[in-house]
Amino acid sequence: MAYVVPTEFVTKMVDSGESKLLMSTRDTLIRAYMAGAILALAAAFAVTVTVNTGNPLLGAVLFPVGFILLYLMGFDLLTGVFTLVPLAVLDKRPGATWGGVFRNWTLVFFGNFAGALTVAVFMAIIFTFGFSEAPNAIGQKIGHIGEGRTVGYAAHGAAGMLTLFIRGVLCNWMVSTGVVAAMMSTSVSGKAIGMWMPVMVFFYMGFEHSIVNMFLFPSGLMLGGQFTIMDYLIWNEIPTVIGNLVGGLTFVGLSLYSTHYKTAPKRAIG
């Protein structure tokens, strides 16, 4: 599990951001679609484990399997490109522009959403035997998650919105730490361990992840959750996306870039 020092893995972060920014539309969408789908399957798995065992910690411990697999296969989540892609512009890499950054973010958002929605439909079919009967216990749980994390926030007004935003910030602080942790090792086992730890923290703590929510909330609507599409967009997805952007870029991307890549001059002695 060879360790890569910060000055080296932060260079990898900038290189990765440049590569993603300049990637073709086709490849960006395929990789985003697959990332959204795999993470949605992991979320369904974690909820299933939690319901069947009654132990949320076990669900959180096992959820990172999807995150690890999708990053080992080179797929992209919106939370990761929020953190990495702007670094290419800050470093003035050839062809890197803010227009390119927003293009990448938009493509990855819609690719992630399409992948997560596909799995949401598949799982809703499974939980209801093709919509022929009421949702099973797991489907009911997903519906209640959607209610609590939309109208539950709305019931608290501005304080609920602030709480939602901060949960989004903290989520991508952890998730993007996992993205970067994969660059800290040259072995599969080292990458997996590095990714697993912070992702487990975010999931167990109930922080808000925009792509996981692209699965949970459409699923909840299909499974009888008592909230609306507008509840989902206004009282979860949009604030979560903004919080994820702030958390990943500020606390992971910019902090590592500024101190390990653009290091300040050493103090003069004497």
Low-confidence stretches: none
Structural class: mainly alpha
| Number of extended strands | 0
Q: Outline, from the CA principal axes?
A: globular
The CATH architecture term is Up-down Bundle
CATH topology: Glycerol uptake facilitator protein
CATH class: Mainly Alpha
Helix tally equals: 12
Distance between the termini: 42 Å
**Which whole number gives the mean pLDDT?**
97
Main beta sheet strand tally, sense and closure: none
Q: Give the strand content.
A: under 5%
Helical proportion? over 70%
Rg, rounded, reads: 19 Å
SSE ordering: HHHHHHHHHHHH
User: How many structural domains can be distinguished in the coordinates?
Assistant: 1
Instruction: Determine the CATH superfamily.
Output: Glycerol uptake facilitator protein
Task: Describe the protein.
It is globular and about 75 Å long. The protein has helices at residues 6-21, 25-53, 56-62, 64-72, 78-90, 98-127, 137-148, 151-154, 157-181, 188-204, 210-222, 229-261. The longest helix is centred in the C-terminal third of the chain and has 33 residues, at 229-261. It is an all-alpha fold. It has a single domain, classed as Glycerol uptake facilitator protein.
